[in-house]
Design goal:
- The protein has one domain.
- The protein is mainly α.
- Helix 1 packs antiparallel against helix 3, helix 3 packs antiparallel against helix 4 and helix 3 runs parallel beside helix 5.
- The relative contact order is 0.18.
- Helices cover 81% and strands 0% of the residues.
- The protein has five helices and no strands.
Length: 136
């Protein structure tokens, strides 16, 4: 298999792992901090009002999901990719960061969530990619 094909497949695998980790952690957070009664997940206005009522712990859980998903996904990508330096693992971080920003734009989040996401997601991506290339 050519190194380029291997890197592309590694990024796909890393993104799949990242999103799986994010979904599992967010599901756990939803069980611990359920949305307010009557929240319609298909109604943007309902979601915005539910976000405004979410406790800090629920929002911290979301940030934790994004960060751990990025860390594990970047590690997986770097481990499978085996070549290409930090770039394949960083690709996962870029995609997760873009998704987090889109989420934060669509549903208003407090400033601390923005700051945490913008700092911790790239840091988790760099760490995961570095650990994955080091152990490859």
């Amino acid at each position: 298999m050519s190194p380029n094909v291997r890197r592309v497949l590694a990024v796909i695998a890393g993104l799949a792992v990242a999103f799986l980790v994010i979904v599992v952690i967010e599901m756990i957070c939803t069980m611990v901090y359920p949305p307010p009664p009557g929240t319609d997940p298909h109604d943007p206005a309902s979601l915005k009002s539910a976000m405004a009522a979410m406790p800090a712990g629920a929002l911290a859980g979301v940030v934790l999901a994004w960060v751990l998903g990025t860390l594990v996904g970047s590690f997986t990508t770097a481990k499978i990719g085996a070549t290409g330096g930090l770039f394949p693992g960083a690709t996962v971080g870029i995609v997760i960061l873009a998704a987090a920003v889109m989420n934060m734009v669509a549903l208003p989040h407090p400033v601390w969530v923005w700051v945490a996401a913008l700092v911790l997601i790239p840091a988790a991506s760099a760490l995961g990619a570095r650990l994955g290339t080091r152990s490859a």
